[in-house]
Amino acid sequence: GPVNGPLSGRHVIVTSGPTHEPIDPVRYIANRSSGAQGTAVAAALRDLGARVSFVTGPADVPAPAGVEVIRVQTAAEMRQAVEKALPADIAVMAAAVADWRVANASDRKIKKDGKGNLPVLEFAENPDILAWVSQLSEGRPELVVGFAAETNDVVGNATAKRARKGADWIVANDVSPATGIMGGTENAITLITADGSEIWPRMPKEQVAQRLADRIARAM
Ligand code: C5P
């Protein structure tokens, strides 16, 4: 990014993409996050001069150039990578982190036993990286931004999420199937801050990212 941008000298951590939670060495549980919005946010912050640590799960889209890319698979690895990347001035958590991991993952490929017995997966809750960073008592980033994918009562749910997690801002998007946003190229978001909510018009994910980055730069 430019050396004289509004975010030059600032360090930003961006999380992006899905996580993969292993079942055994060859199988995993994942979600449909493409990583497109997180990647666009990282590129837009870079373009404003920020030094970006980009912590990404296995995404469909390539990581942006000009950022430090830290590739992870699981939520536990993502948390560790964020911890290692701290301190930061700003954290933007755009990853679709799996809520649960498989607690009884096998270190060998699970086989059919030939008698029709079925494997039973047990789950354990993953760490909430956004809540943890938001509530750091020492070294909390000055601005912590989370995302929220909602299908109903977007403002109500996202406002509650902002308070529950302790984030400064929540970027909420309506992912009800009729919007076509999940997996699409456009996004329609509502920005939730301490001052209330702001509805942005539907626009390409790159433009959402640029507008968010401008807004972040103005807040710093
Ligand atoms: O609670 P929910 O998953 O809807 O919250 C979404 C926000 O929290 C996103 O910003 C996401 O990156 C973050 N998150 C996280 N760690 C988790 C779950 C969600 O950082 N384990």
UniProtKB/TrEMBL annotation:
Location of region: Phosphopantothenate--cysteine ligase: 12-220
Q: In which pathway does it act?
A: Cofactor biosynthesis; coenzyme A biosynthesis; CoA from (R)-pantothenate: step 2/5; Cofactor biosynthesis; coenzyme A biosynthesis; CoA from (R)-pantothenate: step 3/5
The protein's superkingdom reads Bacteria
Q: Where is the DNA/pantothenate metabolism flavoprotein C-terminal domain?
A: 7-218
Name the cofactor(s): FMN; Mg(2+)
EC numbers on record: 4.1.1.36, 6.3.2.5
What job does the chain carry out? Catalyzes two steps in the biosynthesis of coenzyme A. In the first step cysteine is conjugated to 4'-phosphopantothenate to form 4-phosphopantothenoylcysteine, in the latter compound is decarboxylated to form 4'-phosphopantotheine. Catalyzes two sequential steps in the biosynthesis of coenzyme A. In the first step cysteine is conjugated to 4'-phosphopantothenate to form 4-phosphopantothenoylcysteine. In the second step the latter compound is decarboxylated to form 4'-phosphopantotheine.
The protein's name: Coenzyme A biosynthesis bifunctional protein CoaBC
Please list the residues that bind CTP. 99, 109, 127-130, 147, 161, 165
Q: Which GO terms describe its molecular function?
A: phosphopantothenate--cysteine ligase activity; phosphopantothenoylcysteine decarboxylase activity
According to UniProt, the reaction catalysed is:
(R)-4'-phosphopantothenate + L-cysteine + CTP = N-[(R)-4-phosphopantothenoyl]-L-cysteine + CMP + diphosphate + H(+); N-[(R)-4-phosphopantothenoyl]-L-cysteine + H(+) = (R)-4'-phosphopantetheine + CO2
Q: Which UniProt keywords apply?
A: Decarboxylase, Flavoprotein, FMN, Ligase, Lyase, Magnesium, Metal-binding, Multifunctional enzyme
Instruction: Report the cofactor remark.
Output: Binds 1 FMN per subunit.
What family does the entry list?
In the N-terminal section; belongs to the HFCD (homo-oligomeric flavin containing Cys decarboxylase) superfamily. In the C-terminal section; belongs to the PPC synthetase family.
| Source species | Paracoccus pacificus
